[in-house]
Amino acid sequence: MLLNYEDVSPVKKIVEVEIPADLISAEAQRVTADFGRQASIPGFRPGKVPTGIVRTRFAKEIQEQVMERLLPRTFQEAIADKGVEIVGEPHLQHMDAFVLGAPVKYKAEFEVKPHFDLGEYRGLSIDDPKIDVAETDIGSMIERLRDQTSAYRPVDDRGLEDGDIAMIEMTTSGDGIEPETRGGHFRLGEETPMPELHEALRGKKPGETASFEKTYAEDAQNESFRGRNIKHDVTLKEIRVQEKPEVTDEFAQSTGGWETIDQMREAIAADIRKHREFEAKRLKQNQIGELLLGAHEFEVPETLVEEEVGKSLQNYARFLASQGVEIEKAEIDWRKMQEEFRPEAVKRVKRALILEQIAKKENLIVSDVEVDAEIRRAAKEADRDFAEVKHRLRHDGGYEELRMSLSQEKALDLVLHEATVRSA
Fold first, then answer.
1. What angle do CA 243, 244, 248 make, to 5 degrees?
2. Tens digits of per-residue pLDDT, 148-194?
3. Where does the pLDDT of residue 139 fall: very low under 50, low under 70, confident under 90, or very high at 90 and above?
């Protein structure tokens, strides 16, 4: 029974509900019977434990399960005619003590998706990014392929020159730190955070050594070096010279299976254009998103914003891990990161809600076949079993979330298709 419904804000509500005593008693009987069938008590055969003993022995557990069953049920019944769509889980603010034979009142706060009037979304005016593939773009890609297929020839009859690859062994030492020796390599003359190393080895031959000292700033990446003067003893182990392959038909055949250089250039140009067309579409979608945000002003549920911030933090952590950062040991101010991610998270939530409304208005339905196709694509990309991924999504609610996401994509495509595009 709904006692009170309070509109705290457009997205935050509070309800006060009373669960009737007879409903509690009926549910308590069912739960007690369930416990009785499963109870194992010495001196009684399974399923033959007297109800009074079951009720006494498992009083706390029975009360908990009764309320676990009745709270969500009575909550949904109380708001059934309010026309709201809940996000997240309700927060229980207060609940009466459980007394069998007496009603129980509780108060719960919850968030809902906001109601708002859709502004104009057809005929939006956006810029069309210019897509151009220059000869220099193709040449840069060919140079990258040459770099990837280069051979590296050792030389030992001269000193180290710009452009050479230096194979080194370096020992670092200083007051208060243990000496440490590591191997590595670098290209002489390239921009580097340690130009002193380049200067120390320029002109050296394999087997020769050099030393230099460096005072590090307080924000140096290596924590043990911060604010310290560190000595570096370096041995040039080997000099290697990069030898790039000639750009011939044979190079095209060995690199990508093309027959000729001309075929390779055409394929590279087509690939660059494809990527730039994708990027151009993304830029146009971003323009659409900004215009939709500017045309709609409404409050968003904090629950959805927190979820979006959480996704951003997870993606950031995965990126750091991919760069070799040990997340547990890294000195990261996650609270500060949350605040930095929050403005964009609010934008993404608002855009999603607007597109969701457009999808509903335009009746943009996403079928199970379309959802399954997207799951199959993602599963294949991640080398996962389709049936396993689909089952997991069905189980945790992700299946319907994916359907909603695909409907929002359809809405965005519709708005983009209906937009007026200005040539750049």
1. 135
2. 999 999 999 999 999 999 999 999 998 888 899 999 999 999 988 88
3. very high
Residue 146 lies in a domain: no
Beta bridge partners of 243: 151
**Residues 10 and 95 both lie in one domain:** yes
Please state whether beta strands 165-174 and 177-187 pair in parallel, antiparallel, or not at all (unpaired). Answer: antiparallel
Instruction: Give the residue from 233, 288, 243, 325 showing the smallest Cα distance to 409.
Output: 288
CATH code, domain carrying 76 = 3.30.70.1050
Q: With 0-12 CB in 10 A as exposed, 13-18 as middle and 19+ as buried, what is 257?
A: exposed
**Edge-to-edge order in the sheet of strand 104-112:** 2-7, 12-19, 104-112, 86-95
Q: Which residues pair with 208 in a beta bridge?
A: none
Strand partners, 86: 112
Q: Is residue 136 part of a domain?
A: no
Based on the fold, state whether residues 196 and 49 are members of the same structural domain. no
CB count in 10 Å sphere of residue 210: 19
Q: Which domain holds residue 187?
A: 151-243
Token look-up 């009037």 returns 117
Same domain, 104 and 155: no
CA-CA distances (angstroms) from residue 186 to 153, 202, 315? Answer: 15, 12, 30
Looking at the structure, tell me whether residues 409 and 285 fall in a common domain.
yes
| 221-246 residue pLDDT tens | 888 888 889 999 999 999 999 999 99
Nearest to 422 by CA among 128, 118, 87: 128
**Considering the domain boundaries, does residue 264 fall inside one?**
yes
- pTM, two decimals, is 0.77
Question: Where a domain ends, among 112, 141, 174?
Answer: 112
Instruction: Tell me which residue of 358, 371, 373, 369 sits closest to 408, measured CA to CA.
Output: 358
**Tokens coding 272:** 């660059």
> Does residue 143 sit within a domain?
no
Largest CA distance in the chain: 98
The structure tokens 């394929």 sit at 267
Paired tokens of 300: 């968003």
Distance CA 170, CA 176 (A): 18
* Residue 246 near residue 145, CB atoms below 8 Å: no
